[in-house]
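Protocol step 4 of 5: obtain the predicted structure for the target chain.
Materials: sequence only (see below). No template structures provided, no constraints applied. The aim of this step is simply to have a reference model before the mutagenesis design in step 5. Sequence pasted as it appears in the construct record:
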Amino acid sequence: MFIGEYRHTFDAKNRISLPAKFRKDLGRSVIVTRGLDRCLFVYSKAAWKKETERIAQYPATSAGRGLSRLMLSGASEADVDSAGRILIPDYLKSFASLSVKSVVAGVNERVELWDEAAWDAYTTTIERDADKLAETLAPKP
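Step 4 output (structure tokens):
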């Protein structure tokens, strides 16, 4: 399970370091793809296999096809180098509007990469609305 948020910077070659605490569970090669909320999702190969099985269950509706295309066509395999860095392709960096300063966030079975300013704005909103969100997710009696 991945938890926590870490501030990292991209180097001149579009590489970003993964937190040391995440590296063992991610392995030597990861899958990076377009995520939701304009961030990138990073999966271990085992978690990616589970995710693609889940995606295969989407209905053949416009929404199902669109989300499948977003996730699968945008996927890229990245090797973790000896310094714990991964190379992010330009098209993915552009999709998430990643600048030099970024946030690497652990979100259960995946890691998310966010532009630092976008992450700060997003978390401000979520923190402000957390009580309302919790009420909408609470089971009905």
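Step 4 remarks: The beta strands are 2-9, 15-17, 29-34, 40-44, 76-79, 85-87, 101-108, 110-115. The CA atoms of residues 2 and 21 lie 8 Å apart.
Proceed to step 5.
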